[in-house]
């Protein structure tokens, strides 16, 4: 496994861990992609299918906003 | 001039059920303000009936609820607006509470005219509590996502311009993100997942065209 693949796997693990802690009574509606329980979300991420890629992309957007400081900056601007 | 609002709100799955319920709150508010509202609910949200209405009544504001993608908006299980009939939307004030149409269709809608498009360049998403899926009004989780989106329309109904409506909606999303962060401090489970979805709606909400469009 090269470093890019390793990073991808680590990111997937992080995303799965974040989904794992969601309460079981919650479901996620992602428009055309459908509505998903946390188990279904995790299965799609593990498979890496279209739904899984979309779920990953949404998480990546947020992680980028957190790590770049944009998320905090935006929240603070609104104070 | 009489303001004419057309609302499309299919409801055939959990996602559209929630959108339809929240759209009903907007309809009530608009009627209270004496705005003429035509409500295309459920199977009535079809291409034929919606097209006929727009051609005949020339509504100045269009509120679309349902599924979508980069170049289409759906009604009841069928596309009602796409690049092929984009002229139906031109020159109007559009709010598309649907996935991704802000990435392409929305830009085309405002090209060469004085209309405005507010929508989402990413999938519009929300968490909801399965226990309340038959009664969305009781669902405090879904409310975190759907009340800020309703604010676009509620602000327009109150006479705000499109830019103000867009900004008010985004400000409410930020307020809700802060509420979720308070839950995070209390170690409530799943708060980061909830926050992430709201951030995507916030980051994905776009406005194109005439920022000063408003009801007459």
CATH fold topology of chain B: Rossmann fold
What proportion of the residues of chain B form beta strands (DSSP E)? 15-25%
Number of domains of chain B: 1
Ends distance of chain B: 7 Å
Order of adjacent strands in the largest pleated sheet of chain A: 1-2
| Quaternary class | heterodimer
| Number of alpha- plus pi-helical segments of chain A | 4
Largest interface: A-B, 27 and 40 residues
Description:
Chain A is mainly alpha-helical and 79 residues long. Chain A has one domain. Chain A has 4 helices and 2 strands, in the order αββααα. In chain A, strand 1 and strand 2 form a beta hairpin. In chain A, helix 1 runs antiparallel to helix 2 and helix 2 packs across helix 3. The longest helix of chain A is centred in the C-terminal third of the chain and has 19 residues. The model of chain A has no long low-confidence stretch (mean pLDDT 92). Chain B has 216 residues and is of the alpha/beta class. Helices cover 42% and strands 21% of the residues of chain B. Chain B contains 6 helices and 10 strands, in the order βαβαβββββαββαααβ. In chain B, the strands form 2 sheets. A 6-stranded mixed β-sheet of chain B has the order 2-1-3-7-8-10, sandwiched between helices. A 3-stranded antiparallel β-sheet of chain B has the order 4-5-6. Chain B starts with a strand and ends in a 7-residue tail after the last strand. The mean pLDDT of chain B is 96. The interface between A and B is medium-sized, with 27 and 40 residues. Strand 1 of chain A pairs antiparallel with strand 9 of chain B.
């Amino acid at each position: 496994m090269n470093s890019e693949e390793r990073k991808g796997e680590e990111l997937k693990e992080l995303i799965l861990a974040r989904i794992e802690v969601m309460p079981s009574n919650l479901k996620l509606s992602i428009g055309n992609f459908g509505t998903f329980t946390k188990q279904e979300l995790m299965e799609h991420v593990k498979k890496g299918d279209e739904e899984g890629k979309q779920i990953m992309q949404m998480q990546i957007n947020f992680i980028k906003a957190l790590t770049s400081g944009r998320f905090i900056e935006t929240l603070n601007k609104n104070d | 001039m009489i303001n004419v609002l057309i609302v499309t709100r299919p409801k055939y799955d959990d996602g559209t059920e929630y959108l339809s319920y929240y759209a009903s709150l907007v309809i009530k508010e608009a009627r209270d303000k004496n705005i003429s509202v035509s409500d295309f609910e459920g199977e009535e949200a079809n291409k034929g009936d919606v097209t006929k209405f727009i051609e005949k009544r020339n509504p100045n504001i269009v509120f679309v609820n349902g599924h979508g993608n980069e170049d289409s908006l759906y009604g009841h299980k069928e596309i009602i607006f796409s690049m092929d009939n984009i002229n139906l939307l031109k020159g109007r004030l559009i709010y598309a509470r649907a996935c991704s149409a802000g990435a392409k269709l929305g830009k085309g809608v405002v090209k060469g005219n004085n209309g405005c498009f507010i929508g989402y360049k990413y999938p519009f998403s929300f968490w909801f509590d399965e226990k309340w899926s038959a009664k969305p009004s009781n669902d405090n989780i879904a409310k975190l996502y759907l009340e800020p989106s309703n604010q676009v329309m509620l602000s327009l109904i109150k006479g705000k311009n499109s830019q103000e409506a867009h900004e008010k909606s985004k400000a409410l999303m930020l307020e809700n993100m802060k509420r979720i962060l308070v839950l995070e401090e209390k170690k409530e489970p799943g708060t980061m997942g909830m926050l992430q979805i709201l951030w995507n709606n916030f980051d994905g909400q776009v406005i194109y065209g005439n920022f000063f469009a408003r009801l007459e």
